[in-house]
Specification:
The protein is of the alpha/beta class. The protein has seven helices and nine strands; from the N terminus they run βαβαβββαβαβαβαβα. The N and C termini lie far apart (40 Å).
Length: 191
């Protein structure tokens, strides 16, 4: 297990390789379809928000407002990442992302952006939303809540030992592409 702590520098990220298991600690942000499309179309992040050297989590968390006005994440599982493929490469490039967390993998454009800009795609465990929420020690803020709604807003989380596996690295390697190629070869051999 590799401890990956904020700030997520290019040096730290380029040291990772496909198959590495990581425990992420520090500040991460969520971003789903609405945020990716908005940023792709030239929308600006709110004042004080930066994704540079950060990690963007494809997640629409279940977040409860507490009596003291704070927020608590009660479920925070990954959402399917491939929907962001048309936008992800540009978000990586324009906002200096070092990591993207999701499930199911991404395509060639994202892989190329990871290699060029020093970013990794990290696979989180689907179906473990409540367990992953336990790694969120604090909900620091929420942005675009009114504009996009709770699942599509940008949530700023402070996480500790959030588990993930590198499935696309900054060297052009993709576990998803490997599995697809092996599956195609096995299928061809059966025909």
């Amino acid at each position: 297990m590799i401890k990956l702590s904020f700030p997520f520098t290019e040096e730290k990220v380029r040291a990772l390789k496909v198959g590495d298991e990581v425990l992420i600690s520090g500040v991460i942000h969520t971003g789903r379809d609405a945020v990716h499309k908005y940023l792709h179309e030239g929308g600006a992040l709110p004042p004080g928000v930066s994704l540079r050297d950060g990690i963007l989590y494809h997640c629409g968390p279940v977040v409860m407002n507490q009596a003291d006005g704070s927020w608590k994440a009660t479920a925070a599982g990954p959402t399917t990442s491939i929907r962001e493929e048309p936008y992800q490469w540009q978000v990586i490039r324009d906002h200096g992302l070092r990591g993207v967390i999701g499930k199911g993998g991404m395509g060639d454009k994202t892989l190329a952006a990871c290699r060029e800009h020093g970013c990794v795609y990290l696979h989180a465990i689907g179906g473990a939303a409540q367990v992953l929420a336990e790694c969120i020690k604090k909900v620091r803020n929420v942005y675009f809540y009114e504009q996009f709604g709770a699942p599509e807003a940008i949530w700023e989380f402070e996480v500790e030992d959030f588990p993930a596996v590198v499935t696309m690295d900054a060297h052009g390697n993709s576990l998803h592409a490997e599995v697809f190629a092996k599956s195609q070869a096995a299928l061809a051999a059966r025909l």
